[in-house]
Amino acid sequence: MSDPEYDLIAIGGGFAGLTAAARAQDLGLKCLVLERDSEDRYLCNSRITSGVFHVASNDVRLGPEDLAPAIEKETAGYAKPELVQTIAVNAARTVEWLRGAGVKFVAKGVGYVNMRQHMVLAPPRRMRAGLDWEGRGGDFTLRALEAFLIKYGGAVDRGAEVTRLLMEDGRCIGAEVKAGGKLKEITARAVVIADGGFQANPEMLRGSVTGAPDRVRLRATPSGTGDGIRMAQDVGAAVTALGDFYGHLLSATAMTNEALWPYPNIDIVAVAGVMVDGNGRRFVDESRGGVFLSNAVAKLDDPLSATLVMTKKIWDEIGTDGIAPPNPLMVKHGGTLIEAPDLGALAAAIQVPADALKTTLDGYNQAFHSGNLGTLSPQRDGGRHQAYPVEEGPYCAIRLCAGVTNTMGGIEIDQHCRVLGKDGAPIAGLYAAGSSTGGLEGGPNVGYVGGLVKAFVFGMVAGEHIAGEIDA
Ligand SMILES: Cc1cc2nc3c(=O)[nH]c(=O)nc-3n(C[C@H](O)[C@H](O)[C@H](O)COP(=O)(O)OP(=O)(O)OC[C@H]3O[C@@H](n4cnc5c(N)ncnc54)[C@H](O)[C@@H]3O)c2cc1C
What is the pTM assigned to this prediction? Predict the structure, then answer.
């Protein structure tokens, strides 16, 4: 290859692509970010993030001795050990580098399970219903990283859609780009795939994520179309299991009401109540938390057939807790809360067989009182979230939908974020970061480690490794 035009090009202008490019530019490389969207403040998941920079719900500034076991526990050992180490060793350092690049954080209590004071991108999102991103942490951080990149001689090309990776003798040497209706080739010593997952691609979701992509709610921008995974596979990259996603439970009304996503989510009451399918039967261990539960709902034959059943007491006491409490936000913004004085009326209102619902709740309440929730099928293990009896009216119910924020599976990478081929060896010149990558999150627990940490830490590590390779 004759002299490439750039040292590094990043596919995608979210946190992963901008961090990789800005860090490498900082280290003296010549970098370009290619962003498909042509808007100045293009929408991507980074732009609308809530900005809580955590590692498996732990403070990102903890040391590797705390973070590595936390990731292993959350993912039940599914996370690749080398990626666990990459995150655990570099997370706190990433905060410091980002600060130096102009990113601002506030230490803030966010009230999730296990979450006390956390580094949150500033200015923090106001925890209100609907989308609220302008001038908030995600928006500010994208602009800060772009300004840093440009200040040191790098560039961001908007309206530049990468369509194919260029390969020569087994090495990635650049990318084909569609811009202004024309195709052109841009050469580089290294390419970082950072296009942000496939949550907005119904055909890729169909099958392993859900059988009915039109019956789940995209709790994200429409930017994640899985191009990076497709392009990587075309050049022989290995891809992890693709079935899990990070998401939350929403009112089914969010399918048509923009004010009901990304907040309020209704996880906080779902874990305290009983979730039933269209036959009035439990289908999941409610104590597993909102990410697990939204995956279970997405995988039902009809993902819009699930209903949360609880007492009015749960709705009034637990529903009013948390950072963006579903009570009163859900109803205030048009979500439907079903209320009924007794079980018969409730079954009629949620359209499930009354005898089946009664059997489900009788069994649940008996198990609750005898301390045998673990013997139910499916069991309710009670470990992570406390159970409550659901035996005295008035009752409340919420029809549910799964809110899909970002996919967890993706391109296989090693500890330096180099893309791995099917033989397990790195593909020269090719890296991946952020939601396009797999191997850290998912598995039997649908373990959630954090979208920001995958974008920032993997982006930084990729940029540094590329700089190191070019230097050597
Ligand atoms: C509502 C919401 C709240 C969240 N809250 C949190 C939180 O509190 N904590 C946390 O850890 N995570 C959170 N996340 C997740 C986190 O924000 C994301 O995982 C992370 O920002 C993803 O960064 P990324 O760079 O991988 O992808 P993105 O930010 O999605 O950027 C990818 C970019 O690639 C571009 N692109 C796509 N295809 C192409 C192509 N072919 N050519 C060129 N460009 C392309 C897209 O247009 C997009 O701009 C949240 C996400 C959402 C939606």
Answer: 0.97
